[in-house]
């Protein structure tokens, strides 16, 4: 059974961006948005900026950010990638993001994901790495924050996730609230869970080596996101539904006050 962590409310968590954590970000911004008439939903405007711009703003504490599957214009220091095959789904997008981050870091060996089906960032294998809160010995950020490009409250959700991961990794073993403290230090990440008990793999933070290792063992062109993360030892973090808000349907847009373009 997955381990669960239920801290205080997210707005009581210190918004530090994850003190002591070295992290990169992958934003999954592709997808056909069929229920919205095939529009680019990451371009929808909420409170004066596009959803994608809001998610990008939430990654300002990252060492590097890669946006996968978007044709939008964004800052030059943001990496760009396209999932293979195009429209291949969020798992393929996560693999493409891992590869782009590895290339940008000069990685050609164990941190690449070449055997996962896209073949552009390395051919070696990856282990699960050691527990810790900083970067790996190779200079790669140890943690990867993965976000959907249409999240509405990413600026609140990301600091919350990172602060909770930092707390789990650094809590004293004598802490009464950490009965599994040693095991928590070996976790592969933290995944948000909505009030209905559904895992949100595009609102999560993963240990880079563990996610890469899983990708190396599977082909990205025929892979579900749950299949990609299933081997990982993830702690589930309950979130209020508001922090996981995204825009999948016209009803979602109406509830959030987002105006949809006329696709007729």
Automatic annotation (TrEMBL):
<dbReference type="InterPro" id="IPR025877">
    <property type="entry name" value="MobA-like_NTP_Trfase"/>
</dbReference>
<feature type="compositionally biased region" description="Gly residues">
    <location>
        <begin position="106"/>
        <end position="132"/>
    </location>
</feature>
<feature type="domain" description="MobA-like NTP transferase">
    <location>
        <begin position="25"/>
        <end position="214"/>
    </location>
</feature>
<dbReference type="GO" id="GO:0016779">
    <property type="term" value="F:nucleotidyltransferase activity"/>
</dbReference>
<dbReference type="Pfam" id="PF12804">
    <property type="entry name" value="NTP_transf_3"/>
</dbReference>
<feature type="region of interest" description="Disordered">
    <location>
        <begin position="104"/>
        <end position="133"/>
    </location>
</feature>
<keyword id="KW-0808">Transferase</keyword>
<dbReference type="InterPro" id="IPR029044">
    <property type="entry name" value="Nucleotide-diphossugar_trans"/>
</dbReference>
<protein>
    <recommendedName>
        <fullName>MobA-like NTP transferase domain-containing protein</fullName>
    </recommendedName>
</protein>
């Amino acid at each position: 059974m997955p381990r669960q962590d239920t801290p205080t409310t997210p707005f009581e968590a210190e918004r530090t961006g994850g003190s002591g954590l070295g992290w990169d970000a992958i934003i999954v911004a592709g997808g056909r948005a069929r229920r919205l008439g095939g529009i680019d939903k990451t371009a929808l405007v909420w409170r004066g900026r596009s959803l994608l711009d809001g998610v990008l703003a939430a990654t300002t504490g990252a060492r590097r950010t890669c946006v996968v599957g978007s044709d939008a214009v964004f800052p030059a220091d943001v990496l760009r990638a396209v999932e293979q095959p195009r429209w291949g789904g969020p798992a393929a997008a996560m693999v493409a993001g891992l590869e782009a981050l590895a290339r940008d870091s000069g990685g050609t060996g164990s941190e690449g994901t070449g055997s996962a089906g896209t073949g552009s960032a390395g051919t070696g294998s990856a282990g699960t790495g050691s527990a810790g809160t900083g970067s790996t010995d190779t200079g790669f950020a140890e943690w990867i924050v993965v976000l959907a490009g249409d999240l509405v409250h990413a600026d609140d959700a990301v600091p919350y996730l990172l602060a909770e991961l930092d707390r789990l990794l650094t809590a004293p073993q004598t802490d009464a609230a950490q009965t599994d403290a040693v095991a928590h230090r070996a976790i592969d990440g933290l995944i948000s869970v909505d009030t209905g008990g559904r895992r949100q793999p595009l609102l999560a933070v993963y240990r880079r080596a563990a996610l890469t290792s899983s990708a190396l063992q599977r082909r990205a062109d025929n892979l579900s996101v749950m299949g990609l993360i299933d081997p990982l030892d993830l702690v589930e973090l309950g979130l209020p539904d508001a922090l996981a808000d995204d825009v999948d349907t016209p009803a979602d847009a109406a509830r959030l006050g987002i105006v949809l373009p006329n696709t007729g």
